[in-house]
Amino acid sequence: MVQKMSCGNAAFAAGNPTESLIRDAFLVSASKRITINPAFLDDEKLPEGERVAVLQEVFNRNIRLRQLERLARCLSPVLGGMLPPNVLVYGPSGTGKSVTCLHFLSTLRALCEARGIPFTFSYVDLTTPHTCFGALNELAIALDGRVRRYRKGIALDHMEETIIQTLNGRDGFMCVLVDEADNVTTDTDLFLTFLAKTLPKKAAPKLFYVFLTNRVEWEKTLDPRILSVLKKTDLIFEPYDAMDLVEILRLRVEKALDGSKVEEGAVRKIAAFASRETGDARKAVELLAKAVKLAEEGSGRLAEAEVDAAERSLELDKTEELIRSLARQQQLALQACYLGFAQRRGRLSTGDAFQVYADLCKAQGTTAISQRRFSDMLNFLDLYGLVNATVISKGRFGKTREMSPSLPSEVASRLLKQE
DNA sequence: ATTCCACCGGAAGGGGCGGGCC
DNA sequence: GGCCCGCCCCTTCCGGTGGAAT
Predict the structure, then answer these.
(1) Sheet architecture: strand order including A387-393
(2) What is the pLDDT of residue A3?
(3) Residues engaging strand C (CB under 7 angstroms)
(4) How far in angstroms lies nucleotide B4's C1' from the CA of residue A362?
(5) How many CA atoms lie within 13 A of A249 on its CB side?
(6) I want to staple A82 with a disulfide (CB 3.0 to 4.6 A). Which of A12, A45, A77, A270 is the partner?
(7) What is the pLDDT of residue A270?
(8) Would you place residue A419 in the very low, low, confident or very high pLDDT band (cuts 50, 70, 90)?
(9) Mean pLDDT of A348-373
């Protein structure tokens, strides 16, 4: 069909069937179109300015008000020229920790500016795990505003010195916001000691920190001496409740969609799903986007049925994503299990599964791992809910793990079709 | 009561690899 | 850029185990 379009004049001839075909297709999809501005359904694509505006709107609707109040109580001494305590913010992912804190700090900066109090803040993003060196690197980048990373292989002392030098060019109050502070994989204590002890002593600005983490037990893994030096205050960010999520979703609907094609019940249902699960706003928006896509392919209206379908489809996507992210051997083990299930009608013992797996390996020319390892792998697959495995005794015929399938049939059949 | 199956799961040791350091 | 050390993955070894069979 594409070729037909390219043949110049013919396309302009009256009554060209292809032309009307295209026009009809366009009209049908246009009539079903719900999205007006897709960028508002995907934070990654939203330009920085718009993102700030959306957030502003969220905060104007009194969402996260209590959390902002708590932050204000802790950090407002800055306005009086006093050094506030360090703050540790706990909260599950998607509860708006980072955005709320960023919003708060930039508002605080504006207030300070109006009063002539020098105040700056930097944002250190440790969302991807870092070694101590990597964390210092991120900190240095955040402070001096360069894009380029420092070269690997520089001594830690030297990194620390660089950071101190950078800070000594400034004065007044300075807040460092450390996102996902628990993500320092090695020498966490070293990193924190540097932040809590060395920097305040050697650097010119009056420093305080806001640490964000979603692991409540993080504090327990730290050296108690560091904790005492930190002199921190703890804040908790509760997950969004269904009402908050409804507000957040409504805002997105207003910005991104044709409101007349979106049913209120659908929005409430998404909020209910998301709040029942984790109260994660990102997940809620993701579910909204998926439901809209399904609605545009189908009825052209976003109703509760589309939400249900989207929720199910996301669930399937998630398991497939999980399977894709498995290591090669783990994938083979999983395939072997489901091959075995297909051959032996469901139930499968470790020995049987290992046999299938070994054959599979031979067929693909990979070397098989030992049965001991394979057994651990089955444990792992069970842990992730990709198979069901329970240890049972068959008396005289030994003890074994009996496995049964747990994946939805669509996923399982797609798994078997691979290669 | 004892035996015995078929595997479980802990321990120990080896090898490869990547991060930290110079 | 290159070396070294620690960590992780893997294998091998082996004592342990629940209940049908005897």
Answers:
(1) A348-349, A399-405, A387-393
(2) 45
(3) A 152-153, 327, 329, 367-370, 372-373, 393-396, 398-399
(4) 32
(5) 33
(6) A77
(7) 93
(8) low
(9) 87
C1' (B16) to CA (A189) span, angstroms: 29
How many CB atoms are closer than 10 A to CB A77?
14
pLDDT value of residue A5: 44
Q: Identify the helix (H) or strand (E) that includes residue A300.
A: none
Whether A89 and A212 have beta carbons less than 8 Å apart is answered as: yes
End-to-end CA distance of chain A: 31
The 10s digit of each residue's pLDDT in A360-371 is: 888 888 888 889
Q: Residue A8 is encoded by which pair of tokens?
A: 């110049």
Which of the four pLDDT bands, split at 50, 70 and 90, describes residue A166? confident
Query: Which nt sits closest to A400, CA to C1'?
Result: B7
What is the residue-averaged pLDDT of chain A?
A: 84
The three-state secondary structure class of A212 is strand
As given in the structure block, the two tokens for residue A229 are: 């030096």
Give the per-residue pLDDT at A79: 92
Q: Tell me how far apart the alpha carbons of residues A360 and A367 are, in angstroms, rounded to a whole number.
A: 10
* Span CA (A62) to C1' (C5), Å: 53
Q: How many CB atoms lie within 10 A of CB A96?
A: 25
Average pLDDT over residues A394-398: 85
Q: What is the rounded CA–CA span in Å between residue A231 and residue A103? A: 24
